[in-house]
Amino acid sequence: MTxxxxxxxxxGTGPGGYVAAIRASQLGLRTAVIEREHLGGICLNWGCIPTxxxxxxxxxxxxxxxxxxxxxxxxxVSFDMKKLVxxxxxxxxxxxxxxxxxxxxxxxxxxxxHARLAGPGTLAVSDAxxxxxxxxxxxxxxxxxxxxxSLPGLEPxxxxxxxxxxxxxxxxxxxxxxxVGSGAIGMEFASFYGDLGSDVTVVEVLPRVLPxxxxxISKVARKSFEKRGITIHTSTVVASLExxxxxxxxxxxxxxxxxxxxxxxxVILAVGIxxxxxxxxxxxxxxxxxxxxVIVNEWxxxxxxxxxxxxxxxxxxxxxHKASREGVLCVERFAGVAGVHPLDTTxxxxxxxxxxxxxxxxxxxxxxxxxxxSLRVGxxxxxxxxxxxxxxxxxxxxxxxxxxATGELLGAHMIGPEVTELIQGYAIARSLEATEAELxxxxxxxxxxxxxxxxxVLDAYDRALNF
Length: 467
Hints:
The chain has helices at 17-26, 41-46, 48-64, 81-105, 164-167, 184-196, 215-227, 320-335, 365-370, 386-391, 419-431, 436-441, 451-460; strands spanning 2-3, 8-11, 31-35, 109-112, 114-117, 122-126, 132-136, 139-142, 146-148, 161-162, 176-180, 199-203, 231-233, 236-243, 248-254, 260-264, 266-269, 273-275, 289-290, 293-294, 307-309, 350-352, 357-362, 375-381, 397-403, 409-416. By secondary structure, the protein is an alpha/beta fold. It folds into three domains: 2-148 and 274-335, 3-Layer(bba) Sandwich (FAD/NAD(P)-binding domain); 161-271, FAD/NAD(P)-binding domain, CATH 3.50.50.60; 356-460, FAD/NAD-linked reductase, C-terminal dimerisation domain (Enolase-like, domain 1), CATH 3.30.390. The strands form seven sheets. A five-stranded parallel sheet has the order 4-3-2-8-21, covered by helices on one side. The chain has a five-stranded parallel sheet with strand order 10-17-11-12-13. α3 runs parallel beside α6 (184-196). The model has no long low-confidence stretch (mean pLDDT 95).
């Protein structure tokens, strides 16, 4: 069976795909999405959303273990891992149902099955029973996302050596946990399990944790994690993992140091992701793939006319909101919307939902220096913030980086309470091309955590008022 009459076909319904489909429909394009598993993709079902539900549970556990600081006491406080996991899965199911509603509301046709390219503007979609139908449209968007990468000798087995999927649905709490990789995914799981009581060890091949963040923020983060009892090895590799009936034997090799042999109950592999480029029918097309990701231009166009790719499939930053923005940009471009601009990835904020939280947007201090900027840098510690003291969470700081000649906000970097909610203020400032003048003259409410954002700007120009 062949179905024509579509203007746009979207393969995958993650935060890039479903948003692209909605925007296409809003612009009057007859649109269909093809999904082989769950509406909402990995982010909604196995990533962004359910992990935050788990991390919230860990925060509550931490608070309950420290009630005395607030004048409370409680006895026999415990948690039920099955209920924690069940709540997380319930949140994911609810939002997946929300995506289904959005598709219906916006008139987007949903087709269940696996899609492969079958010629220009043509997709062959196979359903669970093996039946195949062809869909045709002049514009096809690939939004198939990515999956966890594994390294030779460090392959997951789903039992004792986990990817993020297994780590999200544990049957119990591992006493000894090894996390391989200290990016956002690795450190979020380290934070979650550490707060619940696991003895956590993190191994990172690069010289510092959270390596994409500003170096100063990374140092503060490491100090905080180690203070919590998390063991961290940087400039270190996990040479081998041997999974047995009861535990995993790991050989850990520091750069220039003696090898460490250690035993863990579980291992989480968080060594990056690779795009889902397989079995899409890319062979025989002009699409180029580099290290597991599809190559596109600034308009998300592949080398094949009428074929586009967005989100994690096309590479970093691997963030849901970046994928959503690319979906909108891609559709508006081929729909002929005026005033569309390519995505500036330095305006994409990044968030890590550990305790303490980490967030950033723009250039790191080192990157700004390497680009030839002369800088003015401001810092504001949460220890000087009244709201942070009042809520009992005053660890961390806010750092702002300005071009000394123009006053342009080049970057902002945060670690501390609720900074993943605060970073959007600086993201808006960068989008509006605000300078230090506009930020200094903005009135921030008192008492709020956001006052530290203001103080950091003032400090960059030697005008800090409250520390």
